[in-house]
From TrEMBL, chain A:
The keyword Ribonucleoprotein applies. Belongs to the eukaryotic ribosomal protein eL14 family. Residues 45-117 form the Large ribosomal subunit protein eL14 domain. PANTHER family: 60S RIBOSOMAL PROTEIN L14, LARGE RIBOSOMAL SUBUNIT PROTEIN EL14. It comes from Rubus argutus (Southern blackberry). It comes from the Eukaryota. One of its GO terms (biological process) is ribosomal large subunit biogenesis. This is Large ribosomal subunit protein eL14 domain-containing protein.
TrEMBL record, chain B:
Belongs to the eukaryotic ribosomal protein eL6 family. GO terms for biological process: cytoplasmic translation; ribosomal large subunit assembly. Residues 4-59 form the Large ribosomal subunit protein uL6 N-terminal domain. This is Large ribosomal subunit protein uL6 N-terminal domain-containing protein. It comes from the Eukaryota. Pfam families: Ribosomal_L6e, Ribosomal_L6e_N. GO terms for cellular component: cytosolic large ribosomal subunit.
């Protein structure tokens, strides 16, 4: 199978190790075989090892080493935030974050909701079973 | 020399650096006016003869010395500080009790008593926990709060929870066991009324929040996959 996600200028990646864990960054330049210059709207442009990056499907249109203003404009134009949050990967991360921040009361309400849903499903199932049996 | 304590005198010689004064010895002599004191006293510094020592009563040597030299323990003037209440625990917070008869129960915090213990209540109708004292160390404070307006808990303090003093009974052979049994089981009526008066207001504010009543009635437990250090309470 060929590769689909390439390291290129404008590739959006997710940081998977270190201080900036979980941040979406844009590859703005390649330094050498192992490192890239990355930038994001709320961080200082810095180098990062490729091993710390997980490439995403999103790519934006920028020239090599753009000014911060241009980078922001390009990210707005490509609507990176929306694309990310609607992708299944992005949605999963959002759900994980939400689950981790649940309070004890919220977890209890979740249990109640699960029980209720299971009850509804069982009801429907038993109705269908009855129809089949009849 | 003087028996009474003098007021700490202000030095007329400010420090330039620690250990180095601004004025020299001769300058200080002049500043303190020692020349004036000498002049007043005819060229000599005034001198006082020693005060006659007060008459001390004759102390006889003791008749008896203990055989071993026992060391006296050092004086300890350390006073225990009042227990600091965690910032997450405020009146109306739901707490999870971790040990004792009511372990796992979710309970409403009322106030901190002067002994440092926390006063909590179930409320009794919801989960069977009465007005009770609990140690802060055996409690998890959740971020869920119950509306605490209008609840008055001023009358409760540590003395309220002290064990009732039992009167000494005369030992009668046959009646011994029966009499003891009767005394222990009855909870005085005032305590039941106190419980009710605190709980009615609380239950009203609890019922305004959906599911909160069932939440307080249920016990907390760890399930598979729950990591206490990662859980947000």
């Amino acid at each position: 199978m060929p590769f689909k996600r390439y390291v290129e200028i404008g590739r959006v990646a997710l940081v998977n190790y270190g201080e900036d864990y979980g941040r979406l960054v844009v590859i703005v330049d390649v330094i050498d075989q192992n490192r890239a210059l990355v930038d994001a709207p709320d961080m200082v442009r810095s180098q990062m090892n490729f091993k710390r990056l997980s490439l995403t499907d999103i790519k934006i249109d920028i020239k090599r080493v753009p000014k911060k203003r241009e980078l922001l404009a390009a990210m707005e134009a490509a609507d990176v935030k929306k694309k990310w949050e609607s992708s299944s990967w992005g949605r999963k991360l959002i759900v994980q974050k939400r689950r981790a921040s649940l309070n004890d009361f919220d977890r209890f309400k979740l249990v109640l909701a699960k029980i209720k849903r299971a009850g509804l499903v069982k009801n429907e199932l038993s109705k269908l079973k009855k129809e089949v049996a009849a | 020399m003087a028996a009474k304590a003098t007021v700490p005198r202000k030095t007329r010689n400010p420090d330039l650096i620690r250990g180095v004064g601004k004025y020299s010895r001769s300058k200080m002599y002049h500043k303190r006016g020692l020349w004036a004191i000498k002049a007043k006293n005819g060229g000599v510094f005034p001198r006082h003869d020693a005060r006659p020592a007060a008459e001390t009563a004759l102390v006889k040597p003791p008749k008896f010395y203990p055989a071993d030299d026992v060391k006296k323990p050092l004086v300890n003037k350390h006073k225990p500080k009042p227990t600091k209440l965690r910032a997450s625990i405020t009146p109306g917070t739901v707490l999870i009790i971790l040990a004792g008869r009511f372990k796992g129960k979710r309970v409403v915090f009322l106030k901190q008593l002067s002994s440092g213990l926390l006063l909590v209540t179930g409320p009794f109708k919801i989960n069977g926990v009465p007005l009770r004292r609990v140690n802060q160390s055996y409690v998890i404070g959740t971020s869920t709060k119950v509306d605490f307006s209008g609840v008055n808990v001023d009358k409760f303090d540590d003395k309220y929870f002290a064990k009732a003093v039992e009167k000494k009974k005369k030992k009668g052979e046959g009646e011994f066991f029966e009499a003891e049994k009767e005394e222990k089981n009855v909870l005085p009526h005032e305590k039941k009324d106190d419980q009710k008066s605190v709980d009615t207001l609380l239950i009203k504010s609890i019922e305004t929040v959906p599911d909160l009543k069932t939440y307080l009635a249920a016990r907390f437990s760890l399930r598979s996959g729950m990591k206490p250090h990662e859980l947000v309470f």
